[in-house]
Write a structure and sequence with these properties.
Elements: H1 19-26, H2 31-42, H3 45-56, H4 61-68, H5 72-80, H6 88-97
Helix pairs in contact: 4-5, 4-6
């Protein structure tokens, strides 16, 4: 029989809007860890946005790589890396392959960075979902 999942007393009855909120709350007594956690998230805003765009385009890493003219490992490396390690040319190729374009904005030095914003297409503009195949119990 499977063990039922139970919440620890620290999280019982609590709901969090995000993992970040949970980390801030549960590890409030370790501000260094919380700061390091938040810094890690901040360093991956672009690559997370790219992965979201690939998924919205209903493309696998292999399919995207074919469109970019590279191998799947390169797409994986981009998506699992940090923003500072991504080459600008790779961002352009990635976005082009997902049907997007690059627009750059500039802000004064010292301004508070804003999160990467992904504009989602209107529902009518979204690509059709990949067809799925239903499997019978005999297929397992």
């Amino acid at each position: 029989m499977a063990k039922s999942a139970t919440r620890s007393p620290a999280t019982a009855g609590r709901c969090y809007a995000s993992v970040t909120d949970m980390v801030r709350d549960l590890l409030a007594d370790d501000p260094d860890f919380v700061a390091e956690f938040e810094q890690g998230l901040a360093e991956r805003q672009l690559v997370k946005a790219l992965a979201v765009l690939r998924n919205l385009a209903c493309l696998s890493q292999k399919e995207l790589a074919d469109r970019m003219g590279c191998g799947q490992p390169k797409v994986s490396k981009i998506e699992n890396g940090v923003d500072a390690d991504v080459r600008f040319g790779d961002v352009i190729a990635y976005l082009t392959a997902t049907g997007h374009e690059v627009r750059i904005g500039f802000v004064p030095a010292g301004a508070t960075p804003q999160p990467v914003r992904v504009e989602l297409p209107k529902p009518a503009d979204q690509p059709k979902a990949r067809p799925t195949r239903k499997l019978s119990a005999a297929a397992y």
